[in-house]
């Protein structure tokens, strides 16, 4: 099966990936990146291009016109609010923002697929290349799926990948079942009454409530990670009052992350955490809770996983199930609620800087490797 790339392809895709790296846009701001995708793929002559999906998402469709399944392959457009610490010529030009998760590389992998699909279109069914916004906040996949036009490209199968530092270059981690945790950010606001610091008894301070809640919330952590009853609560940020000496505080905020292997377990953890919070509503102190960056658990469908495994074997790429599932979250799992979905993790090197580290950079050698895997799936399923 021929889906090799020319030297010119690799050079152009690498240069384009580095251009994306130089011009990062964080979640919800990916308008320029989306325009760049549409422009770069214009000469592949897709049958349809849908823009502004779920925000700044772009869906590029290659349609055979013959009956067959619809296969969706997803990458992410967004960068992170992290200052890059690098001497690379293509380092970020945007202060405080950078592609420290490799989404620029994942996007280049789908662009590589588009080149080959233009040269040899699928014989049956459709391929949808989904360039998704806002993965880092957990809002992107939900926004794309909620877009009324998503029904027009509803996939039967959905596939994705993520690069994985600490794993040998091009070595793949893949398994069926749970691969990423459910998680959500919980913001707790405790409201009382400020007072002069010389007369704290005339106000209502949240200090004692904060001191009780932090260990109580982390105390909800339970179970070994390999078990379905696993739960983890991490306190991430606490603020109380003003940074002055003359005011006794009347307000505090606690940010914590709730994490479970399964969505059903998350419901129990949320209920337990909220019960602890509302227990502090005493003598003039009120409490409120809201949630941010909500990620569902990502589960790999057995059939979709088998398709990826067969492609890896056909391409001679080493794979195993080590290090899975992961504690980290990933919003790709939402696509699995309407399609058979699976995600693989592509090694970016045993000593490669970790994701979200300020010196991270996507390994360009993975661009043709990731594309080969996905193209093998598409050719095998659609011809």
From TrEMBL:
- Gene3D superfamilies, from UniProt? 3.30.70.360, Zn peptidases
Query: Which UniProt keywords are listed?
Result: Hydrolase, Manganese, Metal-binding
Q: Which InterPro entries match?
A: Amidohydrolase, Bact_exopeptidase_dim_dom, Peptidase_M20, Peptidase_M20_dimer
Entries under Pfam families matching the protein: M20_dimer, Peptidase_M20
Outline the extent of the Peptidase M20 dimerisation domain.
184-279
Record has Nuclease as a keyword: no
NCBIfam families referenced in this protein's UniProt entry, alphabetically: amidohydrolases (TIGR01891)
Identification of the protein by name: Amidohydrolase
């Amino acid at each position: 099966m021929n889906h090799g790339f020319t030297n010119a392809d690799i050079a152009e895709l690498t240069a384009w990936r580095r251009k994306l790296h130089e011009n990062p846009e964080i979640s919800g701001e990916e308008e320029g990146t989306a325009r760049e995708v549409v422009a770069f793929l214009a000469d592949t002559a897709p049958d349809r291009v849908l823009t502004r999906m779920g925000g700044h998402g772009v869906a590029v469709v290659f349609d055979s016109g013959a009956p067959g399944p619809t296969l969706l392959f997803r990458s992410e457009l967004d960068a992170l609010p992290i200052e890059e610490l690098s001497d690379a010529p293509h380092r970020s030009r945007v202060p405080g923002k950078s592609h420290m998760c490799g989404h620029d590389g994942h996007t280049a992998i789908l662009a590589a697929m588009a080149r080959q699909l233009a040269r040899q279109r699928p014989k049956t069914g459709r391929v949808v290349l989904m360039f998704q916004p806002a993965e880092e906040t957990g809002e992107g996949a939900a926004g794309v799926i909620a877009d009324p036009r998503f029904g027009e490209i509803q996939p039967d199968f959905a596939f994705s990948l993520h690069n994985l530092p600490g794993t040998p270059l091009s070595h793949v981690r893949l398994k069926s079942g749970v691969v990423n945790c459910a998680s959500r950010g919980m913001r707790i606001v405790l409201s009382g009454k400020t007072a002069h610091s010389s007369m704290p008894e005339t106000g209502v301070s949240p200090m004692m409530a904060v001191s009780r809640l932090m260990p109580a919330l982390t105390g909800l952590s339970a179970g070994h990670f390999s078990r379905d009853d696993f739960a983890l609560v991490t306190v991430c940020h606490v603020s109380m009052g003003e940074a002055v000496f003359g005011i006794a505080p009347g307000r505090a905020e606690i940010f914590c992350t709730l994490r479970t292997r399964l969505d059903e377990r998350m419901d129990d953890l949320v209920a337990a955490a909220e019960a602890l919070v509302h227990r502090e509503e005493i003598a003039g102190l009120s409490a409120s809770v809201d949630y941010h960056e909500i990620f569902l658990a990502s589960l790999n469908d057995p059939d979709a996983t088998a398709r990826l495994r067969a492609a890896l074997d056909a391409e001679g790429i080493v794979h195993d199930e080590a290090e899975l599932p992961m504690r980290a979250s990933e919003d790709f799992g939402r696509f699995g609620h309407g399609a058979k979905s699976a995600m693989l993790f592509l090694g970016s090197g045993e000593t490669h800087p970790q994701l979200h580290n300020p010196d991270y950079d996507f390994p360009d050698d993975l661009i043709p490797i990731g594309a080969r895997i996905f193209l093998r799936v598409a050719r095998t399923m659609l011809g």
